[in-house]
Task: inverse folding
């Protein structure tokens, strides 16, 4: 088979400028300028299993036609930067190529009936077919290869004879006109991906004149730097994200709306975990029996929370955030005026605590002991407080009584369905108000307190959900409880640990706590 002779770049320049194609280069109708367009949707995500697919999908999303494309090997890291610079100069897409497989000779009938041979079969199979289809869709008349891998691919790709092939190593200028920039399009990619699988796709976005924003991670809420970068964007009317790790378009749109508020959690960013550890003091304001938080006033509690959290700074790489866990409804042995065996304290009682916590960089968790009512009904009573960005929610199933039970007698329990209904409501609150993630805690001590735990939903994008191990007693008892709960827990859940000053024998030191409660993101003291 006759091989197509590589065309020097200077000749490619003349051919395109003259509007000519194959020898003896007849007249062509297409201009020497690519055409681009905004994606149809305001927010879209292009995915792909590898660099070849990502580059291809990005070209399809942005470019409608192109007189030429730049080809670069997906594995040719040394050529990626040169390919990107060339594509940006010319305003044409970058397509990543798979490796070319060694030539395989196979018998093939020829017009004379004698044996012939087929060209090299390309690695990637469908990827090679898709690349050729994209070159055809764009009405490409010339390809520029950068690097040996791309050159090898182009040499055996079976491209139409009308397409000229040149090398990007030739320094001659090319008379290809850049299209009008897609300045209203923001293209998101990760900093890590832009130096690897996403590099060719990012180069295509740059070539189209889009605004490329490189994030620390694919979740724009995840870090303070991400949030600040999104907040600084003047417009997010059209967004294209490169990589399936950005999630669905709907999920990305919601995350961007949250990031755009610029409101961050104590410790930075808008995603709770990973990224911080919470260390809490637990109790009810003004009540010394229910926990250490009630043993002092607000200002002293702020200082105590900081003192309790301080020893953990040296034990974790992530920021350690002091936390208040405030019991806002207290299970009662008497029915009360509403008959639900739970004292529900007014919102105004806790507002000063939340305001003081906000000023001090302290997170707040509202704890519910519902008696005979349900968790969702009680949670809704504190919606005003839960709209604050530094306020989360905890459910204490031990104090969720049945219709004929009284707190202080039998141990309470809650169904997975009630937990899920409460979690769904809280997630909806976060979503509807573009809030940072909220902590959603399930206290657990007795296995029977959570019915059908495997059915508990844990994968909320809006919540940092965890199980708090409430076991008390000697060190061996606490370790046994920790192990037993893990064996019965729903999948995909994070964990917390509670230390008791009076009931533990002895109370674990911070070092012992971290060594025992491996991976715990929430540690509280009662």
Result:
């Amino acid at each position: 088979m006759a091989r197509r002779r590589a065309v020097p770049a200077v000749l490619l320049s003349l051919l395109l400028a003259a509007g000519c194609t194959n020898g003896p280069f007849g007249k062509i109708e297409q201009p020497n300028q690519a055409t681009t367009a905004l994606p149809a949707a305001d927010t879209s995500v292009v995915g792909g299993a590898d660099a070849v697919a990502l580059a291809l999908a990005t070209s399809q999303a942005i470019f409608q036609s192109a007189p030429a494309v730049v080809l670069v090997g997906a594995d040719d890291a040394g050529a990626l930067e040169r390919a990107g610079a060339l594509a940006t100069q010319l305003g044409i897409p970058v397509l990543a190529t798979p490796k070319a497989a060694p030539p395989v000779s196979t018998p093939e009938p020829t017009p004379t009936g004698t044996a012939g041979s087929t060209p090299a079969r390309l690695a990637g199979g469908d990827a090679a077919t898709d690349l050729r289809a994209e070159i055809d869709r764009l009405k490409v008349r010339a390809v520029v290869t950068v690097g040996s891998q791309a050159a090898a691919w182009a040499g055996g790709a079976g491209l139409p004879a009308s397409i000229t092939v040149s090398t990007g190593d030739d320094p001659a200028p090319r008379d290809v006109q850049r299209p009008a920039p897609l300045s209203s399009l923001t293209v998101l990619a990760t900093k890590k991906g832009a130096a690897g699988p996403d590099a060719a796709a990012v180069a295509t976005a740059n070539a189209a004149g889009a605004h490329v924003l490189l994030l620390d991670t694919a979740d724009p809420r995840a870090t303070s730097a991400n949030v600040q970068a999104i907040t600084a964007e003047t417009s997010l009317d059209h967004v294209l994200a490169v990589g399936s790790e950005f999630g669905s378009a709907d999920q990305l749109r919601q995350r961007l709306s949250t990031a755009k508020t610029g409101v961050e959690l104590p410790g930075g960013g808008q995603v709770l975990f990973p990224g911080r550890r919470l260390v809490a003091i637990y109790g009810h304001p003004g009540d010394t029996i229910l926990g250490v938080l009630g043993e002092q006033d607000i200002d002293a509690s702020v200082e105590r929370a900081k003192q309790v959290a301080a020893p953990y700074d040296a034990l974790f790489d992530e920021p350690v955030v002091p936390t208040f866990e405030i019991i806002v409804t207290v299970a009662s042995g008497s029915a009360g005026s509403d008959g639900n065996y739970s004292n529900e304290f007014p919102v105004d009682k806790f507002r000063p605590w939340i305001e003081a916590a906000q000023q001090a960089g302290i997170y707040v968790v509202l704890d519910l002991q519902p008696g005979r009512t349900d968790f969702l009904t009680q949670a809704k009573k504190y919606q005003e407080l839960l709209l604050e960005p530094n306020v989360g929610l905890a459910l204490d199933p031990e104090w969720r009584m049945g219709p004929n039970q009284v707190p202080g007698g039998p141990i309470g329990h809650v169904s997975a369905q009630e937990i899920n209904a409460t979690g769904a409501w809280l997630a909806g609150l976060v979503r509807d108000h573009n809030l940072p993630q909220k902590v959603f805690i399930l206290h657990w001590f007795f296995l029977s307190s959570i019915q059908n735990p495997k059915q508990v939903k844990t994968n909320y994008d809006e919540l940092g959900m965890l199980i708090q191990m409430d076991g008390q007693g000697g060190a061996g008892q606490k370790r046994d409880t920790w192990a037993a709960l893990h064996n019965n827990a729903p999948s995909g859940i994070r964990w917390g640990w509670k230390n008791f000053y009076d009931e533990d024998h002895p109370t674990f030191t911070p070092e012992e706590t971290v060594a025992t409660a491996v991976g715990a993101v929430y540690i509280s003291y009662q």
About this structure: Residues 103 and 464 are 53 Å apart (CA to CA). Residues 1-12, 17-29, 102-124 have pLDDT under 50 and may be disordered. The chain has 16 helices and 21 strands. The longest helix spans residues 416-432.
